[in-house]
Structure formats: structure tokens, C-alpha cells
Amino acid sequence: MGGIFTVDFTTALLFGAVTAGVPLLLAGLGEQISEKTGVLNIGIEGMMLAGAYLGFVAAYDSGSFWLGYLGGAGGGILVALLMMVFCVWLGMNQIVIGIALTLGTQGLTALLHHFQFSRTYPRLGEVPTLPIPLLDDVPVLGESFFDRHPLVYLVVALVFVLGWVFRRTNIGLNLQAAGDNPAALDATGVSVYVTRSSAVLATGALAGIGGAYLANVGAGLFVPFMTNGAGFIGIVLAMLARGNPLWVLFGAFLFGVSLALTTALQVGGLNIPTDVVQMLPFVMVIVVLTVFARHSYLPPALGQPYVRGER
Amino acid sequence: MTAEAQQDVNVTAGGGPRRSAWRDATTTALRVLLPVLLALLAGALIILALGKDPLTYYEYVVQRGLLSPTGFQATVTRTAPLLLIAAGLIVAFRAGIWNLGVDGQFLLAAVVVAALAPELIVFLPRWLTVLLCFVAGALVGAIWSLLPAFLKARHGVNEIITTLMMSFLGISLANVLVKIPFNDPTTTVPQTATLPVADRLPRLFDTTVHAGVILALVVVLLVHLMMTRTAFGLKLQIVGANPRAALHAGLNITGLTFATFALSAGLTGLGGAVEILGVWGTVRADWNPAYGLLVIPLVFLARFNGIAVIGFVLFFAVLMIGGESAARRLDVPHFFVLVLVALLLMFLAVVEYLDHRRRQSRVD
Question: Which of A146, A236, B64, B229 is buried most deeply by CB count within 10 Å?
């Protein structure tokens, strides 16, 4: 093994890990917010995909990566709005609606892509970066962590902001209560519906931006079905993080590494079939789920619609 | 989670002595047909928005999927895997378990059967090969659900996530198996060795429909009887409706959870075996029909009823086969079927919600 950890290999691995990890991080953080309030958001895969499509179209038409993220957030929110109406307001089964939204988005984005681009797959240009002075010159680490699109820094900052919001603010307390004991939250005069609705919309926005990053930065283009379970991995991250955004960051990086291994191994000159390497992230998820099974935590009211005055 | 749906099933099945049977039947028909009609209508609007003529599309789908003899035979053939998956989902959903890993279970079973069948047929008679392949397919499916079953039974880990993840892993693994150990070196495209047409499942009469369809029909009816008429089925339903009550009743929840997963995934695996032995005879690299999530709405529409699901599966097979033809002819990609399924699920939920409200207001 000692031979393959060259500078090129390690750089490719870390660089790829960040690229692959950012969408997972966004999805995981988004899902964490939803799950805290008791909404199991299976539709997050669809929100990511909608974000990937609209984010790509926005960036492609405008030439701006920032507008791409905005479009991504919009796409995610569009799907989240449906989730909000059906699951939070009308109290329908979150899993059934989640599956419906994922399937529907898969079909719709593939259709739209077909009619808009026919069979061509146009690519975006190079990603503009914001190098952080001095740090970006550090060998290996500099290129991977400190010479990225500004969004990457913002997302990492978001981890800490969310940690603060969850622990130190009333908003965090309300979110937690909506998932642990919605009736108690209602009794204190805070609307469970408003709390959960905002959480679902926030999830949509974050997942959508994650999808846009996946398409615009990760791949440089949109391919139908391209999220390929990234949203579901976000759910796993949220499940294992026990409400702590820092664990989502750690997990997303870890899964990012396993996703990046495909390209890194090729750079390292090791010839393992890509199909085998592509199994790695999922093997990793399964192993982590098995080892930490007892530590996964979900709020008591998760998946339960809240109906006022009903016991 | 499915407890509510369970009650609905009981309400429709049991009815009430005060309500007339006729009225019950109309309500049921309305609750079933309304989501279908609304989904088709909304789908038409989407086709219109894409600049195509929805009437031409639906007409073509019905023509190709139902009315033309070859199309109808293809439709009936397609019901075999769908029915077996539906049977597996009915077991799981009635027992309150979300087996969302159907695609991985189906595909792995299909690949193993595709590799096994051409080897066995060399020295075994056809009936024995088929039988062994059915067993192998069911076993592979069941094995692939062992870990989620264990995590659910022992640690209470949510099976939605574990089955989904196992499904993604299974799909990749199936691909690796096709490309490396099971690859037939004589073909240019990576694929398993092909089972000769003469050695596949026998055809029915003079049609292209294979005997697996009969098997699937029998299995789905047996599953229905098992879930509704046997003590074992009742036990599963109790665990699904109220695990705590099941515990107090002295039921072996761990054992029943494992049994549910094994049965559900085993039936799905059998579906994979039937599809290979009946239709394809081989698995090509990157082949993944992804029937799994598509069957879920049908099972919900049928309210977990094994008899009703036959009708919905047939309806859906018409859409699929017709949609595949329409994709080539009318340039509406078959992804449209995914959109229809999603619409179907959503309108089903809406109609269910309205019905629930209506019944509640009557109680009040």
C-alpha cells in the first residue's frame, strides 16, 4: 500500500473528497433540520435532483455559478413545497409522499432534459475559485481545501452556524421540540406547523444547492438520475450524527473520500475496476450503520404527522 | 406507520352492517378510480406542456399495450415480475416493514440465476434447472435482506434506509458480477452466458407469454390467503399494526421480523429468477429495470390486497409496454411513466385524505 500514497494521489483524493463531500454535507445538514422537527424527508433525493437540474440550467443560461446555486435552491424548494403541503399541513404519510416526489422528480427532470437538450450533454466552464492567501500554497492540502469556490467555505461555516443555532437559540429549541414532543411545543404557543414547514423548506433549499453543486462543480453537466442515492446518503448522515452538525461534516468528508477513490486510484496508477470502487461508498454506509447501529438516533415523533388536539 | 392504512383495509374489507354493500362498493371504486383518472389527467397536462398531443399519446399506449396482440402478450408477460414483487411488498407492508430495497434484491437474484441456469442445464433436465433456479433466486433475495432484518430486529435501525442502501450496493454488486466473474468471454458486450431459448420457461399455447405468469398469479393469491386467512399472516399483521401489543400478546417479534424480510425479499428474488428464465435468458451489464419503486404505488392503490393488485399490475403493465413503444414512435421518453406513477401516488394520498376527513366528519 505504501507505494500509492504519492503527492498526486493524495491531492486527487482530498480534492475529490471535498468535491464529492459538499453535496452530501448539504443534504445531510438539510435532512438533519427536517428530522429534528420530526419530518423524515425521503423526498430529499428528489429535492437534490430538482436542484441539480434547475441549478445546471440556471448556471448554463446565465454563465454564473452563483445563479446556479440560486436556481438549485429554487428547485429544491419547489419539491419541498409539495412535501410541506402534503406531509406537514395535510398530515399524509411522509414515506409515500417522499417516494412519490423522488420518482416524480426523476421522471420530470429526465423528460425536461430530453426536450431541452435532446441527446446532447453540454458542459459548464471551469469553476472559479477564491484562493485563501497563504493557506492555498500549502502542498497537497492547499489545493484541496483552500482554493475552492466560495460556496465551499460558506457551507463549512454553515456547519458551525447550525451547531450554534441548535444548541444556543430558541429556534433550535423549537426545532428539537417539534420532533421530540410536538404537543408540548404547541402548548407553549409556538406553531408546530410553522416550525416544521420552515424546516422542510430549509431542507429543500440546502438539498437543492447540494444538487446544483453536484451537477455544476462535481460533474460540470446534468445527467438524468445523476444524484444516484446521494440524498439517501444524506439521510444516513443525519441519522448517525445524532443532531450534531459536526458529525455530518465528518461523515460527509468520509463518504466523500470513498467516492473520490475511483478517480484517485486511477491517478495513483492502480487498476481496480471502477464498478468495484463504486461499491465502496455504499459498503461504507452499510458498515458504518452496522457498527454504529446502537448509536443512531431519531426523534420520537419522526414520521408522525402532527394533528392539533389529537392524541 | 402503516397502521392507518391497515385500518382502511379492514374498513373496506369488513364494511359495516348498517351501510349497504352497494354504497360500499361505489365508495371503494371511487377511491380507487379517482386517483387513476386524476393522475392520467395531470399527466395529459404535462404532455401538453411538453408540446405533444396527450390524446395521441394515450391512444397509442392503449393501442400498443392492450389492443395489438403482440403488445398485449408483452404486457401479460411483464406482469410476472411485477406481481411477484407486489406479493413481496404486500407481505412487508402488511407487517409494517418498509422493504424499499426491492431493486437490489431483484437484480442480484436475476444475475445469480442468469449465471447458474446455463451451467445447470448442461447436465440437468429443464424442470430441475428451473426449480433450482427459483430456489436460488429466492435465497439470494432473502440473503440480501438479512442485514436490514438483523439491524431492525436487534437495534431498531430504520429499515427504510438500510434496505435502500443495500439496494444501491446490490445494484453495483450485480454489475460487478456480470462484468467480472460471470462474464461470458465470447460476447463483445459484457453479459452472462445466455440460456438457450428452448431451455427457458415453457410458453403458454401459441403465445409469447411464459408459464412464469401463472406462477406469479398463483403466488400472489397464495400470499393474499396467507396474510388474511392464516394464523401466521394474522401474527404478521399484528406486529405491523401495533408492535407493542404484539409483544404483550407474546409474539416472537424478532422471529417474525426476520420471516417478513426473508419472505418479502425472497418473493422479489423469485421475480428476478422468473424474469430471467422467462424473458431474457441473460443479464447484460448495467441492466436494471428498476421495477421496485414503481410497484409500490400499485400495492398502495390495491390497499395491500393481493387480488386487487392483479388488476393494477395489469393496468400498469399496459402503461409500461405502451409507453416503451410510444417512446420510440412519438418521442415521449418512457421516463413519463415515472411521472405518472408519482402523480398516482400523490393523488392516491389526496383522495385518501379527503375520504378520511369525510368519514371523520360523519363520526363527529
Answer: A236
Residue B192 and residue B284: Cα distance in Å, rounded? 7
A134 Cα to chain B: minimum distance (Å) = 41
C-alpha cell at B21: 354493500
Label residues A110-146 b or e (16+ Cβ within 10 Å = b): bbbbbeeeeeeeeebeeeeeeebeeebeeeebbbbbb
Amino acid at A63: G
**What are the phi and psi torsion angles at B289 (to 5°)?**
-70, -20
CA–CA dist B325, B334 (Å, integer): 9
* Residue A95 neighbours by CB under 8 Å, 6+ apart: A40, A42, A303, B1, B98, B160
Report how far residue B42's alpha carbon sits from residue B45's, in angstroms, rounded to the nearest whole number: 5
Give A111→chain B minimum CA distance, Å. Answer: 6
CB contact under 8 A, B169 and A229: no
Q: Considering Cα of A10, then A278, then A290, then A204, what sign does the dihedral take?
A: positive
Q: Cα(B219)–Cα(B201) distance, rounded to whole angstroms?
A: 16
**β-strands A130-131, A147-148: how paired?**
antiparallel
Q: What is the DSSP letter of B200?
A: S
Are B300 and A96 inside 8 Å of each other by CB? Answer: yes
Complex prediction ipTM = 0.85
Residues B349/A92, Cβ–Cβ less than 8 Å: yes
Alpha helices in chain A (DSSP H): 7-36, 44-62, 65-83, 94-117, 141-145, 150-168, 170-180, 182-187, 192-213, 230-240, 245-267, 274-291
Cα radius of gyration (chain B): 21
Reference A24, options A266, A288, A276, A249; nearest CA is A249
Chain centroid offset of residue B304 CA: 12
Domains of chain B: 3-13+30-363 (1.10.3470)
Contact yes or no for A290 and B151 at CB 8 A: yes
Tell me phi and psi for residue B331, to 5 degrees. Answer: 60, 40
Q: Which tens digit of pLDDT belongs to each residue from A210-255?
A: 999 999 988 888 988 888 888 988 988 888 888 889 999 998 998 8
DSSP string computed for B118-171 = HHHTTTS-HHHHHHHHHHHHHHHHHHHTHHHHHHHHHH---HHHHHHHHHHHHH
- Neighbour count for residue A292 (Cβ, 10 Å): 14
Maximum CA pair distance of chain B? 71
With 0-12 / 13-18 / 19 or more C-beta atoms within 10 angstroms meaning exposed / middle / buried, residue A270 is middle
Alpha-carbon span B50 to B37, nearest angstrom: 20
Closest by Cα among A160, A94, A21 to A298: A94
Dihedral sign from CA coordinates of A212, A214, A220, A223: negative
Q: Is A107 in contact with B335 (Cβ distance < 8 A)? A: yes
Rounded CA-CA distance B258/B140 in Å is 15
Are B120 and B183 in contact by the 8 Å Cβ rule? The answer is no
Question: Which residues is B203 bridged to in the sheet?
Answer: B210
Which tens digit of pLDDT belongs to each residue from B15-51?
445 557 777 778 777 887 888 899 999 999 999 988 8
Whole-prediction pTM: 0.88
Report the C-alpha gap between B2 and B97 in whole angstroms.
Answer: 9
Question: What pLDDT, in 10s, does the model give residues A118-155?
Answer: 777 777 777 777 677 766 677 767 777 777 778 888 99
Contacts across the A-B interface (CB distance below 8 Å): 141
Cell numbers that stand for B79 in this block: 406482469
